[in-house]
Amino acid sequence: MAGTVGIIGGMGPLATVDLMRKVIEYTPARRDQEHVHLIVDQYPQIPDRTEAILGVGPDPGPYLEESARRLQRAGADMIAIACNTAHYFIDRIEGAVTVPVVHMPGETSRHVAEAGIARVGILATDGTLHTKLYQRLLQREGVHVLIPDERSQERVMEGILAVKRGDLETGGRLFREEAEALVSGGAQAVIAGCTEVPIVLQSTDGLQVVNPTEILARTIVERVCVR
């Protein structure tokens, strides 16, 4: 299998491992040598993306650019970002390298439209919602977007921070409650729009979860396999 994929990771570390695991699971390999060559920059020192977007934290752009350049120097000929919010800075990341960068929110939005989902909810960071990263892409695809109200969004952020500190039970409970609230409000499905969310929230009867990490992993495998 040709092609080397670099992953800008550490946002957070567990979410990066989740992406790596999914790439392995979705690769049609019969032996070690048929798996995707991954180079991972597990770089949790990248400043918080949401804090930067909201104007209360340092700019992560130089760190993201540095990570992308490091991956290309190491041999990556395609780059993926294991964080939804970081895609707000994708123009800067793409400008730092000469290899393609996979756009997880873009791939996810196309998937939602192709699946015939007309009304979708989003569980994501304050930064992702503030920039309308998903809203713009989905509306361009003709999909109506539902987002949590202010109190519900506070609970989503509580869940994200819980998963980051290793409290998966609390994160899973908060995400499920808020996802069900979006479905009650008319959403046909809910996008797990922060890479911490799908670690603990999966589809069940009555709740269809769209997993961007899964979509990114499948996109990576498809692009490498057609080389």
- The total count of strands amounts to 7
Q: What class, by secondary structure content?
A: alpha/beta
Helix % is 40-55%
Rounded radius of gyration (Å): 17 Å
Strand order of the largest sheet: 5-4-6-7
Family: Belongs to the aspartate/glutamate racemases family.
Keywords: Isomerase
Pfam families: Asp_Glu_race
Protein name: Aspartate racemase
Quick structural overview:
This protein has 227 residues and is α/β, with parallel strands linked by helices.
Question: Can you walk me through this structure?
Answer:
- The protein has 227 residues and is of the alpha/beta class.
- The radius of gyration is 17 Å and the shape is globular.
- Helix 1 (13-26) packs across helix 11, helix 5 packs parallel to helix 7 and helix 5 (104-114) packs across helix 11 (212-225).
- The chain has a 4-stranded parallel sheet with strand order 5-4-6-7, sandwiched between helices. A 3-stranded parallel sheet has the order 2-1-3, with helices on both faces.
- It folds into 2 domains: 5-103 and 215-225, Rossmann fold (3-Layer(aba) Sandwich); 105-212, 3-Layer(aba) Sandwich (Rossmann fold), CATH 3.40.50.
- It has helices at residues 13-26, 49-53, 61-73, 90-96, 104-114, 126-130, 133-140, 150-164, 168-184, 197-200, 212-225; strands spanning 4-9, 37-42, 78-81, 119-123, 144-146, 189-192, 209-210.
- The model has no long low-confidence stretch (mean pLDDT 97).
- It comes from Paenibacillus flagellatus.
- Keywords: Isomerase.
- This is Aspartate racemase.
- One of its GO terms (molecular function) is amino-acid racemase activity.
